[in-house]
Amino acid sequence: MIRVLEAFSSNVERMAKCNKCLCARSKQSFKPQPFISEVKGEESLGELVFIGLGLHDHLGISLRALEEIKSADYVFIELYTSFLPAFSMEKLTELTGKKPRSLVRKDLEEKNGEAVLEVAEAGKAVLLVPGDPLIATTHVALRIAAEKRAIRTRVVHGASIVSAAIGLSGLHNYKFGRSVTIPFPDDTVSFTPYEVIAQNKKLGLHTLCFLDIKTEERRYLTINDALKQLAKIETQKKDGVVTEGSVAVGVARAGSNNPAVKAGFVKELLNFDFGEPPHTLLFVGKLHFMEAEALITLAGAPEKLRRLSE
Predict the structure, then answer these.
(1) Which domain holds residue 233?
(2) Which of 36, 183, 269, 279 is the most exposed place for a label (fewest CB within 10 A)?
(3) What mean pLDDT comes out for the span 28-37?
C-alpha cells in the first residue's frame, strides 16, 4: 500500500512539472494578433465620421449624430454640395456645443480634404454634410483617402433628396432608372439629361433629375428653367422625349414643413410657381395604377392621368 502511494505521489509531481513547462512555453510563444493597420506598418489612431445633416435645417440631424459631434475633437462642415434653406450655423453651435469650421469646394476638391485628414490622423474629426453624406462623389473620394491613410471612417446617415423626392411624388422607388443632373446652360447646353430620360423611358422607368446649384453664387436652377432647357433640346433632337404632353413631377423644399409637389404635363408645369429652392424634377415612365392615383391625390395631377396607367 505504501509503495502504491509513493508511486502515485511521484506521478503527481511529474505532472506538475510538465504543467509548469507548458505554461512557460505558452507564455513565451503567445503574441496578440496585430490590427490590420499594424500589418501594413501603420498606426490607426484617428477617426473620421461623415454625418448627414438632412434636407432643410439644423434640426435634420439625428440624435446619434448629435452625440458624435459632441464627442469630436474637430468639427467641419461643407454646405456647397446642396442647399439647406433654413439652416442656422448659430443654432447648430448652440445645439451641439461645437462651432464647425466651414469648408468650401476648393478645400475638398482641389486640396483633397487635406485639412480634414491631417487632424483626423491623431484625433476624432467629423464632417457635416447636407443630405446623406455619401451621395456626393466628393465625400466618397475623401473617405477612400482616409482609409488609405489608416484613418478609421464611419457614417451617420441623414435624409436624402433621393428618397424624399421619390417618396413625396408617390412614385414607386424600384421603378427608377439612372438619375442625372441638369446643369446651368452657362457655356454649352448638355444633351446628357435628355439622353438619360430617353433611355429610361424606353425601359418604362422613371428619371430623377437633380437640378444644378452654385451656392457660392447663390444660384439655383429652377424646375421651370430646367423644363425650358429640355424643351429647347427637344426642338433639335425631335425624338419625342420631352414634349408638352410628357408627364413630370416637380418637388421643391423637400424636408420642410411646406414642400411643393406638383405633377402634370410639361405644358402645365412650365408656368407653375414652385416657390423658393431647392428644386428637384422627376420624369415619369410607365405608370402603375397606384402611382397614377398617388400623383392625382398627393401631387395634384389631372384626373386624365388615370388613363395612362397600366
Answers:
(1) 162-308
(2) 36
(3) 38
Contact 96, 66 (CB under 8 A): yes
Q: Which three cell numbers stand for residue 84?
A: 439647406
Same domain, 280 and 186: yes
Work out the number of other CB atoms within 10 angstroms of the CB of residue 205. 18
**Whole-structure pTM value:** 0.83
Task: Check the CA dihedral 52-79-137-167 and report its sign.
Answer: positive
CATH of the domain at 101: 3.40.1010.10
Show the CA angle centred on residue 134, arms to residues 44 and 249, nearest 5°: 175
Predicted confidence (pLDDT) per residue in 79-107, tens digit? 999 999 999 999 999 999 999 999 999 99
pLDDT score for 13: 52
Find the helix or strand (DSSP H, E) in which 280 lies.
strand 279-283
Asked if residue 82 lies in contact with residue 278, where contact means CB atoms within 8 angstroms, the answer is yes
Query: Tell me: the pLDDT tens digits for 217-257?
Result: 999 999 999 999 999 999 999 999 999 999 999 999 999 99
Beta bridge pairs of residue 81: none
Q: How many Å apart are CA 155 and CA 157, to the nearest integer? A: 6
Alpha-carbon gap, residue 47 to 236, rounded angstroms: 52
Q: Answer yes or no: do 133 and 176 share one domain.
A: no
